[in-house]
Design a protein that fits this description.
The complex is a heterodimer. By secondary structure, chain A is of the alpha+beta class. Helix content of chain A is 42%, strand content 12%. The longest helix of chain A has 24 residues. Chain A is elongated, with a radius of gyration of 24 Å. The relative contact order of chain A is 0.08. By secondary structure, chain B is α/β, with parallel strands linked by helices. Among the domains of chain B are: 111 residues, Flavocytochrome C3, Chain A, domain 1, CATH 3.90.700.10; 115 residues, Fumarate reductase/succinate dehydrogenase flavoprotein-like, C-terminal domain (Methane Monooxygenase Hydroxylase, Chain G, domain 1, Up-down Bundle). In chain B, the strands form five sheets. In chain B, strands 1, 2, 6, 7, 8, 9 and 16 form a seven-stranded mixed β-sheet that branches. In chain B, strands 17-15-10-20-21 form a five-stranded mixed β-sheet. The chains are: A alpha+beta, B alpha/beta. Bound molecules: flavin-adenine dinucleotide, iron/sulfur cluster (2 copies) and FE2/S2 (inorganic) cluster. FE2/S2 (inorganic) cluster binds next to loops of chain A.
Chain lengths: 345, 567
């Protein structure tokens, strides 16, 4: 259905065109968009607008919604190309930033299989939660439960307080750059949940969980692009969880694992033991400069900043590869420092 | 399909605890949880405040006995005292159990579970995790169920019980992803489908799916419902959505103001003003609206909750959630302008009549949580007692069903019944003769309930309500399902939910009309006092030959004699 776009304000209302992604696997061979133009007053959310469209214009427009209060995580969708909750997103706010005047584009989340229109299949997320044991396996035997409390300090509570805000809306999953290429990737929400379990002193399977996390498609695949954290609808510092798991992995598992931590470990020990970077042992050789920078440097720099290791001394060799590397290292250090500043709240 | 030993309908706190406990009771049983939304989406996640338990972490002199008394008094003496005994004495154990399984409770200075004061409780005994208690409890239970390998049928919509004489043979449900109607032959079925307060539609704080499906299915199978007329209203719901603005806003000094700019609470509670008890404040706001002193808007009449005088700093530091909600759902920044609010239907005390073990009147059918009515809340639920209810009685129902499952022979569900359900489901999709819009019917149902079966009830209004509900039911026969697709047909799901709400609305209105007294949440202006001689009893509503028939059931008393309820 196409209605001419004629944006005007009248009696406190604006005509808004919702350009809605449509796909019904039973009849459509490929997706398309339908336009619905409705008057929207201030204070109305995207979800209310979609409800209005469904009730008054086209009952077949399909999307999930339940609590309508930003707590159940049902209504994740892409609104003007950003993944968020339809029920907490104000139409007028989005409109002010719309690239095409008066138009709001609504699409399903990415990186999860499409079911119909704005509905995606959440099962892959649940499967990953299972795969990475996203639960507390209590140190207390089941038979003794209910008798006494664990004593937990406020400090420990604060370690996982923010992470337990997660409502599994999958907005971060939709924005994750690695997931676009590799659907097997653990995914940010599951890393967050894994971290939350790992820092809980009541849990008994930290080692087991960690050993899964460091395998292929696990924590080392993350590129530190920060997109998950930027899109999190609950403003959870997801990156802290990812860094946390990586540090934990290196600290408690050393270099036993897959290429990721092996390289990180080698890199760190080079700096530490020899006081200089030895070209031959750098991961650049096996994985290339870009890969090394993206995957290992931020971590290494963070560890340096936390004073776990002495800062790297000036690079000694002047080989071409090293020269590029040195420059990039410097840039990267700056970049990570800034990142940390701007992302730490 | 191989018959199940236990099929649990509902993946909220009650359903998940039932599943866990059933597996624990007998690990060899074949158990499944069926839910119309992914379990972690269930409405349990919306509970912010907390769950009551006399842990005595905060108030060292707190006791289970005091919790029992507060609950009985709060329920205006309509709760069954033996059930309340179970609820409150199991409370400390179940809260610790959750703690032992990983629920991130907020902590006291001595590292024990934190507790805070809550309405109607003598001492601070409400255990909480910041303002996300229900959410974290639900997460914990879901995680534990995944760990235990509970089988989930997510996004399955329960349609009907298959009944053979006095026994259930199992459940018939629709797979939302495929649109197929499937049979779940089962020895036992537990209903844990949550509350029905969404029938007040946008005058409700509830999730869109709190439509009382389990209650309606049970009712249509001849199982009695109890105390359906008791629906709790919260004073401050947002105008457009009915979503809750918590008491914190008034606690910090917010004013309730009518369109004449008057702080009207002076008329109703001179001393406590805005901080009077929930039901009183709700009634006062409603009076202002009814007497024409509210603000008019297309989304309905409302009054102002004014925080502007508190200043930006206080609002930002102490009430950030409330500010965020006002901005997200009303587009109003409370620093700059007042929040439009009105009372909102919040909790349903009534539900499927069960004994203290979760058993219903039908063999092999159980109920728990907001969907059931034991009754522990009587005529009015105390804040923080509902999360407790779903945990304690969810667990009990899971245990009972698991113990009793093997007593029953599994029956097969006849093909004809499945076909019948499929035809019923698809009935509204034919264009000929079907034209009513579900959206309009739903809206009108909410309006007639709020107007005639709302906070203030009165004989002629209730009659009008009953009349209008039956007209809506007539019109529903002509409802049109415009979306005719099989895959994830949310239009169809909403129509099915509307049917359930219409069936239950009749029992709410009938119960309210019959009960000629005022007790707890039920206020009759024509019968303003509690009448223990005539009405100290539960209402039962049963469907007999397509008609609601009202009956009664005595209240189980115990240590506490009837007293006037004053605060
Ligand atoms: C805003 C708000 C705040 C609250 N705060 C508190 C508080 O602070 N403290 C407190 O104690 N209580 C509080 N309550 C009340 C409490 O949250 C609920 O009573 C309780 O969570 C209900 O849990 P439940 O398990 O019975 O049902 P729910 O959590 O509602 O779960 C119902 C389940 O049934 C499933 N279901 C329903 N119909 C079907 C069907 N047809 N087919 C298949 N599955 C179906 C749903 O998918 C869902 O999984 C609050 C309620 C609200 C609305
Ligand atoms: S930082 Fe890692 S997890 Fe987050 S979006 Fe980027 S690649 Fe994905
Ligand atoms: S981490 Fe944030 S964005 Fe990702 S699922 Fe959880 S709440 Fe949603
Ligand atoms: S509908 Fe629950 S988060 Fe939007």
């Amino acid at each position: 259905m196409t209605v001419p776009i004629d944006q005007h304000t009248e009696g406190g209302k604006k005509d808004v065109t919702f350009r809605v992604f449509r796909f019904n696997p039973q009849v459509d061979s490929k997706p398309y968009f339908d336009d619905y133009t409705i008057p929207v007053e201030r204070g109305v959310t995207v979800l209310r607008s979609l409800n209005y469209i469904k009730e008054h214009i086209d009952a077949s427009v399909s999307f999930r919604a339940f609590c309508q209060a930003g707590i159940c995580g049902s209504c994740g969708m892409r609104i003007n190309s950003l993944s968020k909750l339809a029920c907490t997103t104000q139409v007028w706010d989005v409109l002010a930033k719309s690239r095409e005047q008066g138009i709001i584009k609504v699409e399903p989340l990415r990186n999860l299989p499409l079911v119909k229109d704005l509905i995606v299949d959440m099962d892959p997320l649940v499967d990953k939660m299972k795969h990475y044991s996203n639960w507390i396996d209590s140190t207390m035997p089941e038979a003794s439960m209910g008798k006494k409390e664990f004593l937990i300090s406020e400090e420990e509570f604060l370690r996982y307080d923010k992470a337990t805000d997660c409502i599994l809306c999958a907005s971060c999953i939709s924005e994750c750059s690695i997931l676009r290429a590799n659907k097997e990737y653990v995914s940010p929400a599951v890393l967050l949940k894994s971290y939350r379990m790992n820092v809980d002193s009541r849990d008994a399977i930290h080692e087991q969980r960690l050993s899964e996390l460091v395998k292929d498609h696990g924590v080392w695949d993350c590129t530190h692009c920060y997109r998950c954290q930027e899109s999190c609808v609950k403003s959870i510092p997801i990156m802290e969880a990812i860094h946390g798991i990586r540090e934990d992995a290196i600290e408690s598992r050393g270099m036993k694992d897959t290429s990721g931590s092996k390289h990180a470990e080698a890199f760190m020990s080079d700096i530490e033991k020899k006081g200089k970077l030895v070209e031959a042992t750098l991961p650049i050789r096996t994985n290339g400069v870009i890969w090394t920078l993206q995957n290992l440097m931020p971590m290494a720099v963070k560890m340096i900043m936390k004073r776990r290791t002495p800062p790297p001394p000036p690079l000694v060799k002047s080989a071409r590869g090293i020269k590029i590397f040195r420059e990039m290292f410097r840039e990267m250090t700056e970049h990570v420092k800034q990142d940390h500043k701007s992302h730490k709240k | 399909m191989k018959p199940f030993d236990v099929v649990i309908v509902g993946g909220g706190g009650a359903g998940l605890y039932a599943a866990m406990e059933a597996m624990k009771t007998n690990p060899s049983l074949n158990i499944a949880v069926l839910s119309k939304v992914y379990p972690n989406r269930s409405h349990t996640s919306a509970a912010q405040g907390g769950a009551n338990a006399a842990l005595a972490n905060k108030a060292k002199d707190d006791t289970v006995e005091m919790h029992i008394f507060d609950t009985i008094k709060g329920g205006d003496y309509l709760a069954d005292q033996d059930a309340v005994q179970v609820l409150c004495s199991e409370a400390p154990k179940i809260i610790r159990e959750l703690e032992n399984m990983g629920t991130p409770w907020s902590r006291m200075e001595d590292n024990t579970i934190a507790q805070r004061p809550f309405g109607g409780a003598t001492l601070p005994r409400c255990c909480y995790c910041s303002d996300k208690t229900g959410h974290t409890i639900l997460q914990t239970l879901y995680e534990q169920c995944l760990k235990k390998g509970v089988i989930f049928f997510n996004e399955y919509f329960a349609l009907n019980l298959s009944v053979n004489g006095s026994r259930s043979r199992g459940l018939i449900a629709m797979n939302m992803k495929s649109g197929k109607v499937e049979a779940f032959p089962a020895r036992t079925v537990i209903f844990a489908t949550g509350g029905y307060a969404k029938m007040y539609w946008n005058r409700s704080s509830n999730a869109a799916g709190n439509t009382g499906d389990g209650q309606a299915i049970a009712f249509r199978s001849g199982i009695p419902l109890k105390d359906m007329e008791f629906v709790q209203f919260h004073p401050t719901g947002l105008r457009k959505s009915g979503l809750l603005i918590t008491e914190g806003a008034r606690g910090e000094g917010g004013y309730l103001v009518n369109k004449d700019g008057e702080r009207f609470m002076a008329r109703y509670a001179k001393e406590k003003m805005e901080l009077g008890p929930r039901d009183l404040v709700s009634r006062s706001i409603e009076t202002e609206i009814l007497e024409g002193r509210g603000f008019d808007s297309p989304a309905g009449t409302y009054i102002h909750l004014d925080l502007t005088h508190l200043g930006a700093d206080l609002i930002k530091s102490r009430l950030p959630q409330i500010r965020e909600m006002s901005m997200q759902f009303e587009g109003v920044d409370p620093i700059e302008e007042p929040i439009p609010i009105r009372p909102t239907a919040h909790y349903s005390m009534g539900g499927i009549d069960t004994d203290n073990f979760g058993r219903t009147a039908m063999e092999g059918v159980y109920a728990a949580g907001e969907c059931g009515c034991v009754s522990v809340h009587g005529a009015n639920r105390l804040g923080g007692n509902s999360l407790l209810d779903i945990l304690v009685f969810g667990r009990i129902a899971g245990h009972t069903a698991a113990e009793e499952a093997r007593k029953f022979e599994p029956g097969a569900i006849p093909e004809a019944e499945i076909k019948e359900q499929l035809d019923a489901v698809r009935g509204g999709m034919h264009s000929s003769g079907h034209y009513e819009r579900y959206g309009a019917l739903r809206e009108e149902l909410g309006q007639t309930l709020a107007r005639n079966v709302g906070i203030y009830r009165e004989s002629s209004l209730l009659q009008k309500g009953i009349q209008e509900i039956s007209e809506l039911k007539e019109r529903f026969k002509k409802v049109r399902v415009f979306d005719t697709s099989d895959v994830f047909n949310t239009n169809l799901m909403q129509v099915l939910e509307l049917k359930n709400m219409l069936d239950l609305a009749e029992t709410v209105a009938a119960g309210a009309y019959a009960r000629e007294e005022s007790r707890g949440s039920h206020t009759r202006v024509d019968f303003p006092v509690r009448d223990d001689a005539k009405w100290h009893k539960h209402t039962l509503a049963t469907l007999v030959n397509g008609k609601v028939v009202l009956g009664e059931k005595p209240v189980t008393m115990g240590r506490y004699e009837l007293q006037e309820r004053t605060y």
